[in-house]
Each structure stands twice: as structure tokens, then as C-alpha cells.
């Protein structure tokens, strides 16, 4: 319980402190020459936040695969095990990126401002118009040079195995004409979800950045087929 309370304190305290610097960071990023450089600058604070959370929780992250900060925008597609997926991925991935996140996150104090500065997008799953707007916003963000990450399972698996993928989010990559980078993450559910989020234990998490799937895949495959290709690659990586 002590570790859980300590980590929650780090999350709230550091988020509150970092929020005071938002306006200054927003102003300074505009002085940088490229979108990628601007996003990388903004992500530095998020990475510090994520690193402190992982340190307080005793989480070690092992990263494999091509983790270069390539300026070409991509859509990251990751499985979703547990609550720690977000700080782990922010910490692990060198490219700056925003999340496609459920609308409920918008209500969390301090977090909404950061989500917006990271070029994240909200989705209200109960509203079909929101889904259409999410795709439109996602395409615009990718075309502007930002990276995005989605969890196509739609919810945490909590260590119960890879769930079905919803292919709708793939419309973002198809319409924007960007590559897809599958990500396999494992071990986060062992930190909290195994104990119904009432406890927190140290853990070892693996993040595998898999071979990119070129945008041309949509010329030969439907959205559902591409979703299955991505899911199979992630499933294979989780089994290895």
C-alpha cells in the first residue's frame, strides 16, 4: 500500500508542478524549426514524469526494436495490458507521440492540458459522431507531422490475454497514408491489475517495437485484414 500511495503522490505532485510550466513550454516550442523537434521538446517533461512514476513503483523497462526518433509520422498500435502502459510507453518510445484516449481522461485534473500539448485526441465511445471526429482529427494530426498511438483493444486486458482488435482506428493510418508500428507490451498488469489495483508491486516490463507495416498494405488488404495482421504480429511477439 505504501508504494501505491507514494506513486500516486508522485503523479499528482509532479503533474501539478509541470502544469505551471505549460505556457512557457508552449511558447518556446514555437521557436524550434520542425514539428518533430517541437514535439520532442514537449515530450521531455512527459518523459521525466513517466520516469519518476516508474522509479517510485520499482518498475524496470526493457525496450527492443527500432527505437529511433524518425521524423516521418507513424501510427503506433499497442496492446493494452494495464494502468502502467501509458507511463511505460511514454518512457520507452523515443519518438514523441500523442494518445488516442477515452473522453473520461479529460476530467482528470492537470492531465488534460498535457494531453492537448502532446497532440492527443479524445474519443467518446458512446457517441458515433465522436468516432468520426476522432478519425478526422487523427488524420489531420498525422498529416501535420505528429505521431499518434492507439490501443485497438479498447480496454485493458488485465493480464487475461490479447483481446480482439477494433479496426476502426486503422482508418487514421489509411487516410493519412502513414506506416503502422505495432508494439507488444507485457508485464504491466503484474504491477497493479493482478491485485485489483489495491496494491502495487515492483515489476519488469518488456516493450517490443516491431517491424513497421508500410502504408501500402491498404492497397492489398481491407481494414479488418490489416487489423488482423497487426494483432497477429503483436500476439507472436508476446509469445516469444
TrEMBL record:
Pathway info: Lipid metabolism
Q: Which SUPFAM superfamilies match?
A: Glycerol-3-phosphate (1)-acyltransferase
Q: Which GO terms describe its biological process?
A: phosphatidic acid biosynthetic process
Keyword Lipid metabolism found: yes
- InterPro entries the UniProt entry points to: AGP_acyltrans (IPR004552), Plipid/glycerol_acylTrfase (IPR002123)
As its record notes, the protein acts as a catalyst of: a 1-acyl-sn-glycero-3-phosphate + an acyl-CoA = a 1,2-diacyl-sn-glycero-3-phosphate + CoA
Domain (Phospholipid/glycerol acyltransferase) ranges: 74-188
Q: What is known of its domains?
A: The HXXXXD motif is essential for acyltransferase activity and may constitute the binding site for the phosphate moiety of the glycerol-3-phosphate.
Specify the protein name.
Answer: 1-acyl-sn-glycerol-3-phosphate acyltransferase
What organism is this sequence from? Macrococcus hajekii
Amino acid at each position: 500500500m505504501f508504494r501505491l500511495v507514494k506513486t500516486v503522490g508522485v503523479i499528482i505532485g509532479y503533474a501539478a508542478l509541470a502544469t505551471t510550466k505549460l505556457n512557457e513550454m508552449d511558447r518556446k516550442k514555437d521557436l524550434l524549426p520542425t514539428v518533430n523537434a517541437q514535439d520532442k521538446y514537449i515530450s521531455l517533461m512527459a518523459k521525466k514524469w513517466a520516469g519518476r512514476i516508474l522509479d517510485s513503483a520499482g518498475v524496470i523497462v526493457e525496450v527492443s526494436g527500432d527505437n529511433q526518433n524518425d521524423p516521418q509520422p507513424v501510427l503506433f498500435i499497442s496492446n493494452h495490458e494495464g494502468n502502467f502502459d501509458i507511463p511505460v510507453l511514454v518512457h520507452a518510445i523515443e519518438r514523441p507521440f500523442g494518445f488516442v484516449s477515452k473522453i473520461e481522461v479529460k476530467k482528470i485534473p492537470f492531465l488534460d492540458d498535457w494531453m492537448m500539448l502532446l497532440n492527443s485526441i479524445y474519443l467518446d465511445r458512446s457517441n458515433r459522431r465522436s468516432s468520426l471526429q476522432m478519425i478526422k482529427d487523427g488524420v489531420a494530426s498525422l498529416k501535420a507531422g505528429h505521431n499518434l498511438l492507439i490501443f485497438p483493444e479498447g480496454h485493458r486486458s488485465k493480464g487475461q490475454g490479447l483481446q480482439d482488435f477494433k479496426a476502426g482506428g486503422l482508418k487514421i493510418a489509411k487516410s493519412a497514408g502513414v506506416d503502422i508500428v505495432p508494439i507488444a507490451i507485457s508485464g504491466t498488469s503484474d504491477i497493479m491489475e493482478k491485485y485489483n489495483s489495491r496494491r502495487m508491486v515492483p515489476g519488469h516490463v518488456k516493450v517490443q517495437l516491431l517491424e513497421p507495416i508500410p502504408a501500402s498494405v491498404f492497397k492489398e488488404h481491407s481494414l479488418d485484414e490489416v487489423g488482423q495482421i497487426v494483432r497477429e504480429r503483436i500476439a507472436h511477439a508476446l509469445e516469444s
